[in-house]
Design goal:
The protein has helices spanning 56-81, 99-108, 113-126, 129-142, 146-158, 162-175, 180-192, 196-209, 214-226, 234-244, 249-261, 268-283, 288-300, 304-317, 322-334, 338-365, 374-382; strands at residues 39-45, 84-86, 89-91, 368-373. By secondary structure, it is mainly α. The longest helix is centred in the C-terminal third of the chain and has 28 residues, at 338-365. The protein is elongated, with a radius of gyration of 23 Å.
Length: 383
């Protein structure tokens, strides 16, 4: 099943293509957000209500992908906002820290998108996320630049308003088809809504938009690490990532993981995966997750001594790697070493509880937007 929300599309996944248009717009050719959004943000939920689609693994992955995608806004915004044209003067918008001054500037120049964006940044840092999203929206509607649209979508994504975020990123991608981060935002929103295949497709397209940018590959790697299947084209793109960055252990690891996923009916790929994983830990001896995957590979072959060795390395490098402890306990049990198995199982349980508590704490730190369709809001207002 494919998502049919605005901006996502439907039907069979198209082949990845490299957009030809530029993602950058000059002040004279910046389009306006002339079509009204089909949603309205009405408030926020109690932060203890975590929301999200699917299992805890999916929620964790969604939050990881979201955090990394939202972080894409800060660097570009800093570059574009350090000095902006405001009215007839060029001013350092980000240097304005006083709320009263910001609000006075917005009141004096209500149609200047830069002041609304600066106020949104201020409100988000202050913790007023509802006002922040309204100001990001106003900035994007006044000047639909790539930066303004992305920051609006990222704010929605951060606060788990995944459908509206998909709508905004979809609009941004239509206006800026070569934008890597718009495609990434669409991919993360699709994943949060339960469409793994579509998410992988969007991230493939993001990597095609700028093959030298490692960020889409890293998100694609994290995505396929938790997916049950393999979307056509993923292996080729992660292989390209390794080819472009041959010394990058993460590139080698994610390529190995993608090949591993297609081993069914291709037994020759197991040897390739082993070589890639050994190369990854050679490139970065601290990459615990690569040792873990080596342990999984050996365990599937029932080579328990090798599996135990690799899994021991994984938890030695990263004692907080809960899956490493769990699989090591299983390997010990298969070898009849029940005492060692019990020790590892107890470590796994303590580690899992600690990690889950941290995840829940992080979730409570971020409020969740309440939103509804524009049509429902308009109907309610007319009654």
């Amino acid at each position: 099943m494919f998502c049919t929300l605005p901006g996502f599309g439907q039907a069979a996944l198209p082949p990845c293509v490299v957009p030809q248009a530029s993602a950058k717009a000059t002040p004279t050719d910046v389009p306006q957000f002339y079509d009204e959004p089909q949603f309205t943000v009405a408030g926020v939920k109690d932060p203890s209500e975590t929301g999200g689609h699917g299992s805890d693994t999916v929620r964790r992955t969604t939050e990881t992908l979201t955090k990394e995608t939202v972080g894409l806004g800060a660097g570009v915004a800093k570059e574009s906002a350090n000095e902006r044209k405001v009215g007839d003067q060029s001013v350092k918008v980000q240097a304005v820290k006083d709320e009263a001054v910001l609000r006075a500037n917005v009141a004096r120049e209500p149609t200047n998108a830069n002041w609304h964006h600066a106020l949104a940044d201020f409100e988000e840092k202050k913790g007023d996320s509802l006002t922040a999203v309204q100001e990001y929206q106003r900035a994007a509607e006044l000047t639909a630049s790539e930066a303004n649209l992305f920051d609006w979508g990222a704010e929605l994504l951060l606060h788990r308003a995944y459908e509206p975020a998909g709508e905004v990123f979809g609009k941004g991608r239509r206006l800026f088809p070569a934008s890597v981060r718009m495609a990434m935002g669409l991919g993360v929103a699709a994943y949060a809504l339960g469409s793994y295949d579509l998410a992988a497709q969007r991230l493939c397209e993001a990597s095609d938009a700028d093959p030298s940018d490692e960020k889409p590959y890293l998100l694609l790697g994290k995505l396929q690490a938790v997916g049950s299947g393999l979307v056509p084209g993923v292996v080729e793109r992660l292989e390209r990532f390794e080819r472009l960055q041959p010394e990058n252990a993460w590139a080698t690891y994610y390529h190995a993981l993608a090949v591993w996923k297609r081993r069914e009916g291709h037994p020759e790929t197991v040897a390739q995966v082993e070589r890639l994983l050994e190369r990854a830990v050679g490139q970065d001896p601290k990459l615990a997750i690569a040792y873990l995957q080596l342990g999984i590979l050996y365990a599937e072959q029932k080579d328990w001594p090798k599996a135990i060795g690799a899994l021991q390395s994984s938890v030695k490098v990263d004692p907080e790697l809960e899956e490493g402890h769990f699989r090591l306990a299983t390997a010990y049990r298969m070898r009849g070493e029940t005492g060692k198995a019990q020790v590892e199982l107890e470590i796994y349980q303590r580690t899992a509880k600690k990690n889950n508590n941290q995840v829940e704490h992080d979730r409570r730190e971020i409020t969740q937007f309440v939103y509804s369709s524009r049509a429902q809001a308009d109907e309610k207002n007319t009654k």
